[in-house]
Structures are given as C-alpha cells and as structure tokens.
Amino acid sequence: MGAYILRRLLLVIPTLLGIMILNFSLTQFVPGGPIEQMIARMEGRGDVFETIAGGREDIELEEPRSESSSSRYVGARGLPEEFIEELEREFGFDKPPVERFLLMMWDYIRFDFGESWFQSKSVVELVFEKMPVSITLGLWSTLIAYLVSIPLGIRKAVRDGSRFDTWTSGAIIVGYAIPGFLFAILLIVLFAGGSYWRIFPLRGLTSDDWETLSLVGKVLDYFWHIALPVFASSISGFATLTLLTKNSFLDEIKKQYVMTARAKGLTERRVLYGHVFRNAMLIVISGFPALFIGVFFGGSVIIETLFSLDGLGRLGYEAALARDYPVVFGTLFAFSLIGLLISIVTDLTYMFIDPRIDFEARG
Length: 363
Description:
Elements: H1 2-27, H2 34-42, H3 48-53, H4 55-61, H5 67-70, H6 81-91, H7 97-109, H8 123-158, H9 163-177, H10 180-191, H11 215-234, H12 237-253, H13 256-263, H14 268-280, H15 282-286, H16 288-297, H17 301-306, H18 312-321, H19 325-353, H20 359-362
Helix pairs in contact: 1-19, 8-11, 8-12, 8-16, 8-19, 9-12, 10-11, 12-14, 13-14, 16-19, 18-19
C-alpha cells in the first residue's frame, strides 16, 4: 500500500508540470495580453478585443506612424514608449518566457500564488471569496444526484424491462439531453418571475435581510435561494449515475453467488441488500470524491451567471477574458493538484470498500 501511494504521489509531479507547461505555452500565442488590456482601459477604449476586431479601421483613420511605435502592441500607439516598458516590467514581461515560467513555478511550489493584476486582491483571497458558492453547488448537486439516482437505479434493476423501467429511462434520457443552461432558463421563466410564478428568488445565496433572520429563518432562506440553481446543475447528472447503478446491479444479480443465496432460502430483500449491494455499489460509491470535485471546480459558468452567483466558474471565466494570468495559472495549479490527489483518494476508496482490490499487487 505504501509503495503504491508513493508511486502515485511521485507521478503527480510530472503530470502537474506537464499541465502547467501546456497551458503556459498556449497563452504565449493568445492575442490581447494583459498589457494590451491595461492600455485599452487607460485609453478608455473598453475591451482590448474591440480594438483588435476594429483595428484596421482605426489604423486607416490615424496618421501614419513609424514602425517602431506600432509593432509591439495595438494599444501602444497613444502612450509613450517608456510607459509601455514600465508596464512590461511591472507585469514581468521584460523577461523571456522560460524565465517567467520557472519563476512562476518556484512561487507555486511555495504556494505563493501572487496577486490579481486587475482586482488588487491575492489569488487565495479571491478563491476563498468565491468558494462558498461552488461548495453549495457542488455539495448539494452531488448529494441530490446520489440520493435520487441510487434508489432509482436499484428499482430499475429489480424491475428491468417493466413499464416502470421503460418510462423512467425515457424521462432520464430526456433530462440528460436538455442542456443545463436551457433547463435553468426554463426554471427562471416558470418559477422565478420570468413569465409565470415568482416563487423563488433570482439572485444570490441569501436575502438582503439575512442577518436579521432567526437560525431557522436563515436555513430556510438559504435553501430557498439555492433550490433552482442546484436543481438546474444536477439534472443532467441523474442519467449517468442512475444507469450506472442499474447496470452494476444487473451484472451482480446474474452471478452465481446470488443464485446460491436464493437457493439457501434467503429473502429477495436480504439477497439484494445483504449480498448484491456492496459489490454493485463499489464503482458508484468510490466515484463520489471525483464526482464532487468535478462539480465543485467545474460549476457551470452559465448557471452561475443566470442566477447571479459569484462562484469559481465565473472567476475563472472573467480572469481568462481579462488575461489575469495570476488568477488563471494560480487556480489552475491548485485545482489540478487537488484533482490529482483526489484520483489517489478514489483508488484508496476502492480498496476500502472492497479489500480484495490491491493496486500494489497489480502493479
């Protein structure tokens, strides 16, 4: 066991390094870097991408300039060259890419993720500010998916081929086929004052008067706010988990030890939950850590935007648009490291649920 865990931990280092090298290399070819973003804001031209898109017309309207004054940045035409060089030093772009990458990785090894270029806050502070929203969506979506999908999958396996199995399969497939954002819009239109009923609020995790509410009132207010976004973010996860549970139970039910248990006179319930359940649920339960982290870090940006939830999804999206590289790479490093460690936890969960599994012996 110890040797297997050590090998997996050692593999985290090259994997994480490869992820960072790939993403850092890609950003070197992306137009509209942070310096151009800063210059566009200072010149009052809004987003730098508007300048890039309309750059040809702007060039035609301006008087011809020397090549040295316009060869580096589109937004640099109206600012002194000394100021541009100062911006480069401030953002660290006066150094070669390889040196910048090595310096960044040295800071990340010490868990120094730096400060956002455009929000005047540390990356760690920004992440902790947005984390409650992501925890809410990830935790409740995962729990609801398991609480509904596992009993439903068992029921479908027991009644395989029945009318119940057919109708529920159709409903699950339809729910899986509907995009999460489209389902979120439907919920808003129906229940959040879009066109019909105004039953649920449309924004935030709590009401404005949340601090003045009693403990019970705060709990009810919290669930009142998260009902629609959690439902919208978890609806598509029901299909995979339900069908996985059903197929896992069907595979176990057909095995010889189940026939032997029935031949001994055990009740169907005892056979199902005393013998089949543990083996069938191995793959379902062991995947809980990975599923939660996937929902936690990969929360839907569109759902967060529709329900005005300021979570990690929106943080990453806005940082990528603004070319806020400390936020982009800092969160990428931290989340990739956590994801790799969670994969190890998932393997250990397999062995905890079923001691017969031995990854070390297999290696």
